[in-house]
Automatic annotation (TrEMBL):
Residues 438-579 form the Protein Lines N-terminal domain. This is Protein Lines C-terminal domain-containing protein. Transmembrane segments: none annotated. Residues 646-681 form the Protein Lines C-terminal domain. It comes from Phaseolus coccineus (Scarlet runner bean). Signal peptide: none annotated.
């Protein structure tokens, strides 16, 4: 069957099953019985489309249309392209039904229709373009209606033909939940494209979405948002009035949350790295989203006092930080953007930046307590709880932005139109500009760390090293509860330390100028060898936890990078690694994070090294005990940290090698094994073995 015939089949399917429910009256409140009928009919449509796609794929005699036809259409399709608006609009009517279940099925049906159009060789580019145009017109209509009759449509980009087109297809009862549904459709399609990546299709999708975002009447939404919150602030403080106000704003905030979800999906970091698209120059869409961040912050992060809205604000906080972290990972991002983001963090996230690091307990329940996904609208106490999750994101973003200002030189690019974002950013020659950015970055790092250290700290303090180690230990504990960010932040601190060493060696003026005003040295806070020791201590030197990280889809790449860098540094700083001191307080505070997976007892240690292997496959080295050393101002334990760390890494070597030999390791670990073998050679040469 030809692509045109497939499209006509879909039209007939919708006529047979959905026509009774896609009239304009269907958008009003419906009874439970009518809701059930619609759900049954729309579910049947979804099922039949799925079957049709499978049948089309299984026909060996049908040759799928080339991507050029999918992207641009062909002459034979022009006669049936008019079916696409009809198909989309009939399904869109279901999004106006006042039922979350019907809307959910409608989203799935529209996303599946996208797959159907693409699979059958029809004009997929036209389908995506129509979806984006529909969203553009619908949100403009919604905003202009919400803004009152005085605003009219004269300030929007909709002309009379657009309005007639919208009305022609019967969408007269649009609300914020309808708009959220359309955004969800685009997000699901984006996820489909990630699973089956195609450069041409992704470009068409990005082009359409970017055009849609640029044409949106965001200025009208600015006015709408400020008017809504302005009226709220002037309203009575009675709880019932607050709840009524919230019930009015809830659909709008739901839309903003969905919209933020969509933007996060557009710049998914893992997908960008895998497809070699991790530069802001790859597509104008990324620049559009970057420029959109300050406006999103103004909409989403307004200070609210009632508990119900605080739950939404926490979720919006979470999504905005995720978006900024993903955008911040793009290469080529203008430093002025990072400068503006630091100011944004201080304006909206200061409470999370100043939240103490030393507040954690060893119970596993707390690992989930701060998650914004667990907050209930009816649970006021939970809504007021400061989220550790948000603290981790805010601190990571501050450190990342500060490091970018320190490390980048001569990158005053004009990728983004940020005149409205960075009016406080001065214009200097390149050399002065670099010094200004470096000083700003150093000051941010110093000021944040100083806020979490004792006020009496001094380099000459008798417990100075212990204070620095306590801070590093608390920092590791903070991120140990969130695997997604753990190795990202450890890699970031590793890079900061390397940068600080370079600045110190060449006696950089900006670094020296800032350092003299603070009673501690950043290089003492971020010692990568010590930080690695503390990380191993926090996971109880359990090599199976490391193995779990390495084979995880979410953390495998970043964990491998971190281990490779640490092993390289350790072998070049062996004495520092061997002589690492562990304080009693740090030992007592170590996390109880310990995960067990299948171990292996294969021994790969060098011949003659005193060792034993327990039942779980852990390697134990026999090293002479060290005595207390009172001359350093602290007590060394008889069980030396070096011994435990060496056992952990050598056991990891055994497990990784064994899995690799059985072809069970998810990627090629040869480079990691090579570093681990070099580490093993250093262990063999270490004095103190029996």
């Amino acid at each position: 069957m030809s692509p045109a015939a497939e499209l006509r089949w879909l039209c007939r399917l919708l006529d047979d099953y959905l026509r009774p429910y896609t009239e304009p009256w269907a958008s009003v409140a419906i009874s439970k019985e009518k809701e059930k009928e619609i759900l049954i009919a729309s579910s049947q449509v979804v099922t039949k489309i799925q079957i049709r796609i499978r049948e089309f794929d299984s026909r060996a005699e049908v040759k799928r249309a080339p991507n050029e036809e999918l992207l641009c259409g062909s002459n034979q399709h022009s006669s049936v392209d008019q079916c696409l608006p009809r198909i989309v609009t009939e399904m869109m009517v279901l999004l106006t039904v006042k039922s979350e279940f019907v809307q959910h099925v409608a989203v799935n049906a529209l996303a599946l229709t996208s797959q159907f159009v693409r699979t059958t060789g029809n004009n997929w580019a036209g389908f995506i373009h129509f979806l984006c145009c529909w969203l553009e017109m619908a949100i403009t209509k919604m905003i202009t209606c919400s803004s009152g009759p005085s605003s009219g449509t004269e300030n929007s980009e909709l002309d009379c033909s657009d309005v007639e087109f919208l009305m022609q297809y019967g969408i007269k009862n649009i609300d914020w939940s309808t708009l959220a549904g359309v955004v969800r459709v685009l997000r699901v399609i984006c996820k489909y494209l990630e699973e089956d990546y195609d450069d041409g299709l992704v470009k068409v999708y990005h082009d359409s979405v970017n055009s849609c975002l640029l044409k949106m009447p965001w200025d009208l939404l600015d006015k709408f948002w400020s008017c809504e919150f302005g009226s709220k602030k002037n309203s009575s403080s009675i709880n019932q009035v607050q709840l009524n106000k919230f019930s009015v704003m809830e659909p709008v905030m739901n839309f903003l949350g969905t919209f933020l979800q969509f933007l996060c999906s557009l710049v998914d970091r893992n997908d960008l790295v895998e497809t070699d698209c991790d530069s802001i120059d790859k597509h104008p869409l990324f620049v559009t989203v970057v420029n959109f961040v300050p406006r999103l912050a103004k909409w989403c992060l307004s200070k609210q006092e009632d508990n119900a809205e605080r739950c939404f604000i926490n979720y919006l906080n979470h999504k905005l930080l995720i978006l900024m972290i993903r955008l911040g990972s793009l290469t080529g991002l203008d430093r002025r953007i990072r400068f503006s983001w630091i100011e944004l963090l201080h304006n909206y996230f200061e409470e999370f930046l100043q939240q103490p690091l030393t507040q954690f307990h060893s119970d596993q329940i707390n690992c989930l307590e701060g998650s914004p996904f667990l907050l209930s609208l009816s649970d006021g106490k939970a809504c007021l709880t400061h989220s550790d999750h948000l603290q981790r994101q805010a601190v990571y973003l501050l450190l990342a932005c500060s490091f970018s200002l320190i490390s980048q030189r001569g990158e005053n690019a004009n990728h983004c139109n940020c005149s409205t974002l960075c009016s406080c950013f001065p214009t200097y020659p390149d050399s002065d500009h670099d010094r200004f950015c470096m000083r700003k970055g150093f000051l941010e790092l110093y000021n944040w760390i100083q806020g979490h250290l004792p006020t009496a700290i001094s380099i000459n303090h008798e417990k100075y090293l212990e204070i620095c180690m306590d801070f590093m230990s608390s920092f590791v504990q903070l991120y140990l509860r969130e695997d997604d960010l753990l190795f990202e932040v450890l890699l970031l601190l590793f890079s900061i330390s390397s940068c600080l060493q370079q600045q110190s060696e060449r006696k950089d003026a900006a670094y020296q100028d800032v350092m003299k005003d603070f009673p501690f040295a950043l290089s003492d806070i971020f010692k990568p060898v010590y930080l690695f020791h503390l990380f191993l201590c926090e996971i109880h030197y359990d090599h199976q936890v490391l193995l779990d990280y390495l084979i995880s889809k979410d953390t495998g790449i970043s964990c491998a990078k971190y281990l490779l860098r640490c092993l390289h540094l350790i072998c070049n700083s062996w004495k520092l690694f061997v002589e690492f001191p562990l304080f009693g307080e740090i030992l007592d505070q170590s996390s109880c994070k310990r995960r067990k997976i299948v171990g292996d007892g294969l021994q790969l240690l060098a011949d003659g090294m005193p060792k034993s292997v327990d039942n779980s496959g852990s390697t134990m080295l026999h090293i002479k005990n060290y005595k207390e050393d009172s001359g350093c101002g602290f007590k060394r334990y008889n069980i030396k940290p070096f011994k435990k760390a060496a056992e952990c890494l050598l056991s990891l070597n055994n497990s990784v090698y064994n899995l690799h030999q059985k072809k069970l390791f998810p990627y090629n670990p040869e480079v990691l094994l090579k570093r681990l073998r070099r580490f093993q050679e250093f262990c063999c040469q270490e004095k103190g073995f029996q």
